[in-house]
Amino acid sequence: MDPENPDDERLIELIGAGDKASLQRFHDRYRDLVFTVAYRVCGQECDAETVLVTVFWQIWKNPSAWNPQRGSVRTYLLLLTRSRARDLMRSENGRASSERRATEERSLQHARDQTQLDPSEQVADKMMGNRLRAATATLPDEVRQALDLAFFDGLTHTEIADRLDIPLGTVKTRIRRGLAELRERLAATKNDWSNP
């Protein structure tokens, strides 16, 4: 065994003995792999970074969790990464549910407030709503469906991808495209008060 380049098992032993340099070596060896796996599960760079930090912190705090009878260090690291990424996504989904409830409450409050607007504001709001509905109706079905799930059902991009059984990148592209097209259509009719 090369002392300048110890294998994974030896690095884990050294980490268990509190050797920070070994943790740094282990991190340098596997950070790209851990980040890539985390990114595939989470779909967002900032979430993958969170998983990366969590995984190497866990290796530092509990290197003895790796069991040689259950597989290689690399296999353990990959399983740990997937597990932490899924944990993060579950907690994110829980947070999204709370945010969805808060959004619904704000919408309810907005509806209550609408009844207190003066008539000219109510007319302007109604006209804007009509313009938005008309612009939305011209979008392709798959784009409109993604927007509806995101903004009316309050689903996250990941939840939409799961529900529609399409890649996360496709969901993001459809939503981005839909919003861009809506902006263009609404800008084109901005001063046209004759629109329904």
Automatic annotation (TrEMBL):
Residues 89-120 are annotated as: Disordered. The keyword Transcription applies. Keywords: Sigma factor, Transcription, Transcription regulation. The keyword Ribonucleoprotein does not apply. Coiled coil: none annotated. Residues 131-182 form the RNA polymerase sigma factor 70 region 4 type domain. One of its GO terms (molecular function) is DNA binding. This is ECF RNA polymerase sigma factor SigK. It comes from Rubripirellula tenax. The gene is sigK.
